[in-house]
Amino acid sequence: MSRLPIQCPACREQLNVNKLTCGKCQTQVEGLYELPLLLRLEPDEQRFVLDFLKCSGSLKEMAALMKLSYPTVRNRLDDIIGKIKQLEQVMMPETKEQNS
Amino acid sequence: MNTEALPGRTNRLSVWMFNPFTYIAGWQALMPGVILIIGTALLGSVGNVHFDGVLDMHMGAEAPLWLFIAEGFINWLSLAIILCIAGLIVRGTAFRIVDVFGTQALARWPMLPAAAAGILPANQRVTEELMKIVQNPNQPPVLALEPLDVIVFGLAMIIILVTIVWMIVLMYRGYAVSCNLKGAKAIVSFIICLLIAEATSKLGLYAIIKLFPLN
């Protein structure tokens, strides 16, 4: 399956979901749905978040599974946390506008 | 498990050489690091190769074994302690102290081949001749050396220079990984720490020789 685009190729703004399709009966749903924050991360970052949850949030276990050192894994987590915070700041005004 | 962030096989060797702390840190790095520091000191004591400063390596003066070991530990601890303080100031958030101490201990491993290069008989002969000139400044300098000795000495000096640069790269990588620092902030703070640690290690060695005189 193609990689999910998260940024507009023309103006670099965040993209929203416009159409959803059922994989079985091809029913299509149209609307304007905000892309969830986690889906705005890069695929490898999403994978990291999922693995981190599966390890019950244990960095030591993550480091052992990924065969990387503890600080390398912790730094990767810190980078993703930083990115999530940035995305939250970008998404906040959109959420406020929708609520009003 | 996520493998996209991992380097490929071709890149893996260069990572192990120049940033092994991607794979090893903390206690895993501390244990072999300390063993290698002691090993370097033992090797250095064979040929009177002194590491009298974080970045220093000199040959010549005879000394008891404990001084060679003390030099290794003073150099390691001087930089590790200063980098911990810098990490707290620059980063502002918590990090594991054992990562800084572990990575800095292992970062000194290139000094082992440097010590090995230093104890070569040809180097000993050239050093003895140079020491004679330094100790007798009033006499005209005469170097009674074989051409092969000079070539070996020159090659050893190149190897030692390369290993010192390699060690500095490892020290920086260890600091950057342990404290999660990047860019100019990491480079500038590391250079300042290195200069302070160089002076601190010299003072430390001076103090230990004052406390426990060699003669």
Placed side by side, the strands forming the largest sheet of chain A appear as 1-2
What is the helix tally of chain A?
A: 3
H-E string of chain B: HHEEHHHHHH
Q: How many runs of DSSP E, i.e. beta strands of chain B?
A: 2
Keyword list:
heterodimer; A: 100 residues; mainly alpha; Arc Repressor Mutant, subunit A; two-stranded antiparallel ribbon; 3 helices; 2 strands; B: 215 residues; two-stranded antiparallel sheet; disordered N terminus
Topology:
The complex is a heterodimer of chains A (100) and B (215).
Chain A: E1 17-21, E2 28-33, H1 43-54, H2 59-66, H3 70-99
Antiparallel strand pairs in A: 1-2
Chain B: H1 9-18, H2 26-46, E1 49-50, E2 58-59, H3 65-91, H4 97-107, H5 111-118, H6 121-135, H7 147-179, H8 183-211
Antiparallel strand pairs in B: 1-2
Structure notes:
The complex is a heterodimer of chains A (100) and B (215). In chain A, helix 2 (59-66) packs across helix 3 (70-99). Chain A has helices spanning 43-54, 59-66, 70-99; strands at 17-21, 28-33. Chain A is mainly α and 100 residues long. Chain A has a domain at 38-99: Arc Repressor Mutant, subunit A, CATH 1.10.10. In chain A, a hairpin with a 6-residue loop joins strand 1 (17-21) and strand 2 (28-33). With 215 residues, chain B is mainly alpha-helical. Chain B has one domain (24-211). Chain B has eight helices and two strands. In chain B, strands 1-2 form a two-stranded antiparallel ribbon. The longest helix of chain B has 33 residues, at 147-179. Mean pLDDT of chain B is 90; it is low at 1-5. Classes of the chains: A mainly alpha (100), B mainly alpha (215). The interface between A and B is medium-sized, with 17 and 19 residues.
Provide a compact summary of the structure:
The complex is a heterodimer of chains A (100) and B (215). Chain A is mainly alpha-helical.
